[in-house]
Amino acid sequence: MAYSPTAELARQLDCIEVIDVTKANSQKKVTQHFDFLLVLDFEATCWSFPSGKGRNNEVIEFSVVLYDRILHGLTGINQAQVEEGVPLGTCLMLFTRWIGNHLKNLNISFPSDMMLPGKKKCVFVTWSSWDLGTCLLKECKRKNIYKQEFFSKWIDLRQIYMEHYYRRPKGLLGALEEVGLEFIGKQHSGLDDAKNTAYLARKLIQDGAYLKITNDINNKKKR
């Protein structure tokens, strides 16, 4: 990721968007464990074969939307675009500050062995486990970057989708189409991908799916 001056970093901290996602009412009530979903999508460098053989992927777009399951609201942050990005370590620091404010203001916390009473629960959601289980993990190890513990557990929505609908989707776009949803925005734009993954998560909840943690780096894959 390219260096960005302090003024640009300050501007990026204000890159917040709130959109209304109040659509069809829930039809099949299933008690969910998590109150908030942090839907995450990375875009990374992609190398063509054979020129890219041996090259490592690097995160070039870090996008997250915070989905309030009760109020059906999305708040998004789109961090580190290619042309005006920041080093990954700085990006993680900025994200930690961003999510820290929401954790405090909304009285929520990440899953852990010791949940404080009265706290609402949130968890990361991804489409496949590549973002947190491969991309971020390997780049942080390669560059010796500190990674917060809260990145260690997540819900792989693709796995939940297959378990609930008993079919394997053809990517995120195919999954949306199969349940009657239209992709909104630009494909492979990190923030748009994250938003549409959130829409799909909402649809799964409406259809009675139970969203549970599928992956824990410390305990490998959940069963």
Automatic annotation (TrEMBL):
Record domain Exonuclease: where: 36-210
SUPFAM superfamilies the UniProt entry points to: Ribonuclease H-like
Annotated InterPro entries: 3-5_Exoribonuclease, ERI-1_3'hExo-like, Ribonucl_H, RNaseH-like_sf, RNaseH_sf
Gene3D superfamilies, per database record: Ribonuclease H-like superfamily/Ribonuclease H (3.30.420.10)
Record has Hydrolase as a keyword: yes
A GO molecular-function descriptor: exonuclease activity
Top-level taxon of origin: Eukaryota
Keywords noted in UniProt: Exonuclease, Hydrolase, Nuclease
Protein name listed in UniProt: Exonuclease domain-containing protein
Organism (species): Cryptolaemus montrouzieri
